[in-house]
Specification:
This protein is about 20% helix and about 35% strand. With about 325 residues, it is α+β, with helices and mostly antiparallel strands. Keywords: Isomerase.
Length: about 325
């Protein structure tokens, strides 16, 4: 029997932004101990909230700042969610003060560092930096995985960037990574919801992570089909590389996610697996722009460390009484 959920206190935060109208909203339940064994109740709360994810703290050790964290979309539980992790960490930092947190999730232990001074200038909302579980990435199967996905997206093979091959990347759950050849292709997203959902359920993907690599600017970022690096190699990534991303999420009952920290972490592992990271590298992902909810995600990737650090700010969303 599902427990009553109308009296559950849900905080509303938007992650990877400094403004409530940007980023990806998440519900945060800081005390869900009463729902710990009631998946149906947590799904009901997530459905009522209506965001792509709501996070529930079901167990806690306040002294150690260690928490059991579960994530639910409006349809089902998800093993790991990056933006809801950032939102929960900032909610705890706002309540208890900044510092290190440990979340035990279905995907494994996630350590998060929080700072009250998000921008380093004494102002702005808190920032959280999560360290992912070990990432991995493999080439996607052209026939069984890429072709049906392109068909559902209404894309063709010519729409893809040949320098960034399709992969299935993991950082707590699986994401298909497809790189668009142009910004225009990324912006024009009009996919077959049912067809893409069917492919994703069959393959066990959480999102399809669509990216486009921004051209070089005066600072020497990536351009064309090769990268610049501090060491001069055309194959490495340089700090300041910018990607734009979109993440269809039909398996969660959501057309598109405006910021996807789990997919961003997986994408960091993808770049590492392709050998594009020669040293400690900072990658910026811009997401949500085409939805009117701009989001900023920062990745820190190193070639000899399978874990990826994902950083972002989060802000409380005011709720009308």
């Amino acid at each position: 029997m599902t427990a009553p959920t109308t009296d559950i206190d849900v905080l509303h935060y938007s992650a990877f932004t400094t403004h409530p109208d940007g980023g990806n909203p998440a519900g945060v339940v800081l005390d869900a101990a009463a729902l710990a064994d009631d998946d149906a109740a947590m799904t009901a709360v997530a459905a009522r909230v209506g965001y792509s994810e709501t996070a529930f703290i079901t167990e806690r050790d306040e002294a150690a700042r260690r928490y059991r964290l579960r994530y639910f979309s409006p349809l089902a539980e998800v093993a790991f969610c990056g933006h809801a992790t950032i939102a929960t960490a900032v909610a705890l930092a706002d309540r208890d003060g900044p510092g290190e947190l440990v979340f035990d999730t279905a995907s494994g232990e996630i350590r998060v560092e929080t700072t009250a001074d998000g921008d380093g200038d004494g102002d702005g909302p808190s920032r959280a930096t999560l360290t992912s579980v070990p990432t991995r990435s493999r080439p996607a199967d052209p026939g069984a995985e890429v072709e049906p996905t392109l068909a559902a997206l209404r894309w063709s093979a010519d729409d893809l960037d040949p320098a960034l091959p399709p992969h299935v990347a993991f950082a707590g759950n699986d994401h298909l990574v497809l790189a668009a050849a142009t910004r225009e292709r990324l912006a024009d997203l009009d996919y077959d919801y049912d067809a893409l959902e069917a492919v994703m359920r069959r393959r066990g993907w959480t999102t399809v992570h669509l990216v486009w690599r921004e051209a070089a600017d005066a600072r020497g970022s990536a351009k064309g089909s090769s990268y610049g690096s501090a060491g001069g190699s055309p194959d490495g990534l340089t700090d300041g590389v910018v990607f734009h991303a979109r993440d269809p999420f039909p398996v969660g009952g959501v057309v598109e996610d405006p910021a996807t920290g789990a997919a961003a972490a997986a994408f960091g592992g993808y770049l590492r697996a392709l050998g594009l990271v020669e040293g400690p590298t900072r990658v910026r992902i811009r997401q949500g722009e085409d939805m009117g909810r701009p989001s900023d995600l920062l990745l820190d990737v190193t070639p000899d460390e399978p874990r990826v650090r994902v950083s972002g700010q989060a802000v409380r969303i005011p709720q009308s009484v």
